[in-house]
Specification:
By secondary structure, chain A is an alpha+beta fold. Chain A has helices spanning 2-6, 76-80, 146-157, 189-199, 231-238, 273-285, 297-300, 304-318, 323-331, 333-340, 342-361, 377-389, 396-409, 414-417, 431-445, 454-463, 477-485; strands at 37-47, 56-64, 67-72, 93-94, 98-104, 109-111, 124-129, 134-138, 204-207, 223-226, 248-252, 258-263, 293-296, 367-371. In chain A, 36% of the residues lie in helices and 16% in strands. In chain A, α11 crosses α15 and α15 runs antiparallel to α16 (454-463). The chains are: A alpha+beta, B alpha+beta.
């Protein structure tokens, strides 16, 4: 840590120049309709990444109810920035994307607790984002309390305790709905029926037992189930599954091989009878009455907890704090990458998806994916199988429909997994990122098979943390409807 | 790129379901099917595959090169009425031995029985399977070692036969039936024609008689290339003092030196530089006139000998660049090695003697370290890949680290020349291995001309061939001393570095990676004269230009195969490329090192 002090920022411009920051309207932080400024600090320095505090830009740092924004008169940033959008400037981060905030002192680096109040002087802040971005600010030229006030504003607004405190509820910007013609949202029964027709998979029907979420809160309102199963036996069986997540159809082939996903039985239930009854119905749905092929993802894939642990190690590797760390990591980079196990997890998911795809395609078997709560690894593997087998999902709109179907509609708990709200009991885990990585691997192996690019995939991950879009904001369809009715 | 050739490969590949699932379903899909429509638009370089061509290429050890070549050879096949088991032959190629009932022990698809043929150019195996014969087609130049496996007492199936160890990251095993007594003849023929120089036979390049519309031997004209860079000018002149290779036998006949240097100076400098490899011009910056020059180590020795002429000569190189009053001497070696060389009479420039020069050691290891690293890499990649700890395994070979080191050195040189307008002198010990890497790579980064197909050929002709990289020794063409300490994958490392740069700048190169792989395949094949001999002098003596075909005749007559569809060829393109030489950006070139493993190929 002594080295840290030596490499402290040395003034590279005259002190007079710090007198003020003059920004044109273009350069100033833009405020959306519904967004309010919490605190604004002038003459803040943003250190260039990996510059060891030797390169910095002077500007205005603002915390709003939506974002952390750094505006400077330095246009180079804008030129060098490969991705920009209407919502966020090159040096902005949505509050929802902020993961950890560190207070940096002369020799110290202290992780700050969300919701706490900092009372002393804050000289420097290091902010680590969920999308692996790191931002480091110095308040050495700013007004006395600027650092403290910015820090406290962040600690309070970046970690909402209730869902309704997310910016999406305040946002008054007009929303763009034109794409919904192309993308299937899988919210309505007709859309599921259409999917059944599109895939030409017979012997399945749309059940209304969950029309008003009366049988299961976490599942969608339309459940595609075997033709032969009655609603009453479905209601009876649903009780036995964790998360009330019974076997449902998501995709199938004209030859009758279907892709079905379900949760484990509740740990309190010893008798597998209800599960077996439904599996028997699934067997009957197959044109040749073939026994379905069951893949136990709980046993064979990483758990959300393992994925999170692996991700944190990966982030450490991808967000080195200074050039010294960068170099020491570089020295044994591939070994360290191996040790994060991230690549192993990616490979496992792809292997499982391949196994399922092979069963469906080569053996015309129906595949049933089974996993704990039914809404994490099921989403990953199920959507990968469909990407491998159905070229429709490799188009841009098809891919969006796939995410709508297998992630949003099927109730991947985005609120919890992405850590949108602060709650000790929820389990944060970038399961969705693991999926996007798997997709990227496929695009690398089949460069000509996908309509979308690598940038598209990274943008999807970035926007998962922008609390304006509601796609990745909710735990399930039921939560979304409640929010919409508010 | 590999893709074009492997379309056919994958199509018929029923043993590997992983590919098939994706591929076949892509095919089976309806009109909106993406891959089909894409394929139509991207298959520009693909020749329409005939049915038979398709089926014959569905083997595990096929590579694109041989696939494409066979297509060509297939036209010969139809002319010469061969028996079906006979291999397609190149002009000048003759069958020298053949054995039936041989089993090829394929590490991926299991044993296949068929006919093994040895020609004066290649080893050719064709399995008896009529529909999808397994075909192995390996130029004998690729072979580094042949061993007999099992003896008279061998029992067990396939325990008796021959194992062939190759320079291109694979080994081949064939099993013979003892009762057929076919092994001895095949083994002898293989020995003879894989190692012709050890058996007083000429290399195949001297027998090969195919003609091409373009003559690749004319691609590089030293004077024209120097003129392209603006030499002669006030500061640099073309010198013919080495016309008879009398000053330095491993240097070319023509070179460029500071205009002020007299012939006497040159002779004095030559006596002070290892093997008389004096500092000469590699490249000159079109605007700043900062230069890259190359040489060998100074003969400092333990006594710390100095040479006034050499010191003055280095000063002339520095003065030729008005933009800077400083100059860098980049010594490619680790400093410990440079110091150790003093004991053998070599060493490095002391900063006391060379007042305005700054000496930098680039820490690149010697040929022996590189050879060992590649050996480990081959062990890891062939035949099968251990999935768990694959990345750590790659790391433990240090191959990528060596690549990184070379690239980092090259980037430092580019930075000095481009950003600081300072001239750089590069050397290692003899100045023909690491030095060639460290002049050619910066030139590729600094000058877009070398990033075209023809420009790249010129770069290889100039920095590697004319300045005496000892290809004969490093590759060991036609020689059976497989453990020769002079062998080393120095040129392979250079091509790998080029590939790394193409990965970081996909639009900057006119050529694709298939071009690079073709160059590497013919680095070993001995079909062309290009990579034969150790120096320009030897090539002239051997009359290579008259008696052999240049690899560039072959490549330039099928230009389209090697074009990068993403190449952005216009004047606005980035002139200087500065790749990131961090291990995070260095990848293992799987399409080359792992290409024999069907599960490692790029899919289409």
């Amino acid at each position: 840590m002594t080295e840290l002090k030596e490499s402290r920022f040395k003034s590279y411009i005259d002190e007079e120049q710090f007198a003020s920051v003059n920004l044109t309207d273009e350069q100033r932080t833009k405020i959306l309709d519904g967004e309010t400024v919490v605190y604004e600090a002038h003459k803040v320095l943003l250190f260039a990444p990996l510059s060891d505090r030797k390169k910095a830009t002077l500007g205005v740092l603002t915390v709003t109810t939506f974002k952390l924004s750094f505006a400077s008169a330095d246009d180079r940033d804008i030129e060098n920035c490969c991705q920009q959008n209407f919502l966020l400037g090159p040096n902005d981060a949505c509050l929802s994307s902020i993961d950890t905030i560190y207070q940096i002192g002369d020799k110290t680096k202290k992780k700050l607790t969300p919701g706490q109040n900092v009372s002393g002087k804050v000289k420097e802040l290091l902010i680590i984002c969920k999308n692996m971005r790191s931002l480091e600010f110095s308040f050495k030229h700013a007004d006395r309390d600027s650092g403290k006030n910015i820090t406290n504003a962040l600690l309070h607004h970046a970690y909402p305790k209730r869902h309704s405190l997310l910016f999406a509820y305040d946002n008054k910007e007009p929303c763009v709905t034109s794409i919904y013609k192309e993308v299937c949202l899988f919210r309505k029964r007709e859309q599921w029926k259409k999917e059944l027709e599109r895939t030409k998979c017979k012997n399945w029907r749309a059940s209304v037992v969950n029309e008003n979420f009366q049988t299961s809160h976490t599942m969608m309102s339309t459940l595609i189930v075997p033709q032969s199963v009655t609603d009453s036996s479905l209601i009876l069986a649903i009780e036995h599954f964790r998360n009330r997540c019974c076997p449902v159809w998501v995709w199938g082939t004209p030859r009758g091989a279907a892709l079905v996903r379900m949760a484990d039985l509740l740990p309190t239930i010893q008798d597998r009878m209800q599960e077996n009854i439904l599996l028997e119905h699934i067997r009957k749905s197959h044109p040749e009455k073939k026994q379905p092929y069951i893949i136990d993802l709980t046993k064979e894939c990483p758990s959300p907890k393992e994925i999170q642990a692996s991700f944190l190690k990966l982030r450490e590797l991808c967000v080195p704090e200074n050039t010294r760390t960068f170099k020491s990591q570089d020295f044994k980079f591939y070994g360290l990458l191996d040790a994060t196990k991230w690549m192993t997890h990616v490979s496992t998911c792809l292997t499982k998806a391949l196994e399922a795809a092979n069963q469906i395609y080569e053996h015309t078997s129906t595949v049933v994916l089974q996993e704990g709560n039914g809404q994490d690894l099921n989403c990953v593997v199920s959507s990968l199988v469909q990407l491998m087998l159905d070229s429709h999902f490799r188009t841009k709109y098809g891919f969006q429909s796939l995410i709508q179907k297998d992630w949003v509609a099927m109730g991947h708990p985005f609120t919890n997994r992405l850590g949108h709200i602060l709650n000790k009991d929820i389990e944060q885990s970038p399961v969705f990122l693991l999926f996007l990585d798997c997709v990227w691997q496929l695009t690398q192996q089949y460069p000509a098979a996908f309509q979308f690019s690598e940038t598209y995939l990274t943008t999807v991950w970035d926007s998962a943390h922008i609390s304006i879009f509601d796609t990745f904001l909710f735990n399930c369809e039921h939560d979304r409807i409640i929010a919409e009715n508010k | 790129m590999m893709k074009r050739g492997s379309v056919e490969l994958l199509d018929m590949d029923s043993n590997n379901y992983s590919k098939n699932i994706a591929l076949d379903t892509f095919r089976a899909d309806s009109k909106s099917n993406l891959i089909n429509s894409k394929q139509e638009t991207t298959s520009w370089g693909k020749t329409s595959p005939s049915k038979s061509y398709c089926s014959s290429s569905s083997t595990s050890t096929e590579n694109v090169v041989s696939t494409l070549e066979r297509k060509k050879a297939a036209t010969f096949e139809s002319n010469i009425a061969n028996r079906p088991d006979d291999p397609p032959l190149l002009p000048g190629e003759k069958v020298t031995g053949q054995a039936r009932d041989v089993t090829y022990l394929c590490p991926y698809y299991g044993p296949a029985r068929g006919v093994l043929t040895v020609t004066n150019y290649k080893l050719y195996f064709r399995s008896a399977d009529k529909d999808t014969p397994n075909i192995i087609d390996v130029p004998l130049g690729v072979v580094s070692r042949i061993e007999k496996v099992g003896g008279a007492s061998s029992r067990g199936e396939n325990a008796y036969g021959i194992e062939v160890f190759c320079k291109d990251m694979r080994n081949l095993r064939f099993a013979h039936k003892q009762e057929n007594h076919s092994r001895r003849d095949v083994f002898e023929k293989l020995q003879q024609f894989a190692f012709p120089l050890s058996h007083k036979i000429k290399l195949f390049a001297f027998e090969y008689s195919e003609t091409f519309p373009e003559n690749g031997w004319t691609i590089y004209e030293p004077i024209a290339e120097l003129k392209r860079m603006g030499v002669n000018n006030d500061m640099w002149k073309i010198s013919r003092i080495n016309e008879q290779y009398e000053i330095c036998d491993s240097y070319p006949a023509v070179w460029a030196i500071p205009a002020q240097a007299s012939d006497e100076d040159i002779k004095a400098v030559a006596s002070y530089r290892s093997r008389a490899r004096i500092p000469v011009l590699s490249w000159i910056h079109p605007e700043s006139q900062a230069t890259i020059t190359r040489c060998s180590q100074p003969l400092v020795g333990v006594s710390g000998k100095r040479c006034r002429e050499d010191e003055r000569y280095i000063q002339l190189i520095m003065d030729a660049n008005a933009q800077s009053h400083k100059m860098f001497i980049m010594d490619a070696r680790p400093s410990a090695n440079a110091i150790a060389n003093k004991a053998k009479g070599g060493g490095y420039e002391s900063e006391d003697a060379y007042q305005n020069a700054e000496l930098v050691f680039l820490d690149i290891h010697n040929i022996h370290v590189m050879r060992e690293s590649l050996r480990k890499l081959k062990e890891l990649c062939y035949p099968n890949i251990e999935e768990t700890k694959w990345l750590s395994g790659v790391e433990s070979t240090y191959w990528l680290k060596h690549i990184k080191c070379i690239l980092a050195g090259a980037v430092r040189i580019v930075d000095k020349v481009e950003n600081h307008k300072t001239s750089v002198l590069v050397h290692c010990s003899d100045g023909w291995d690491r030095t060639a890497q460290l002049t050619a790579l910066p030139m590729l980064m600094l000058d877009p001309y070398y990033r075209t197909i023809k420009g790249f050929e010129v770069l290889i002709e100039k920095e590697w061939l004319s300045f005496g990289h000892k290809f004969q020794q490093r590759i060991g063409h036609g020689d059976d001393h497989h453990s020769d300490a002079d062998r080393s994958p120095v040129f392979l490392q250079f091509i790998d570095c080029v590939w790394q740069i193409t990965q970081q700048f996909p639009n900057a190169f006119e050529f694709n990676d298939y071009f690079l792989i073709t160059i590497l395949d013919h680095l070993y094949s001995c079909r062309f004269g290009t990579f034969l001999c150790n120096s320009e002098r030897e090539r002239v003596q051997e009359k290579l230009k008259e008696q052999t075909v240049s690899l560039w005749s072959y490549t330039n007559s099928q230009f389209d195969l090697y074009k990068n569809p993403l190449y952005w060829a216009n004047n606005n393109q980035q002139r200087v490329l500065i790749p990131i030489a961090s291990i995070r950006h260095i990848k293992l070139w799987k399409a080359y090192y792992c290409r024999w493993n069907p599960s490692m190929r790029t899919q289409v």
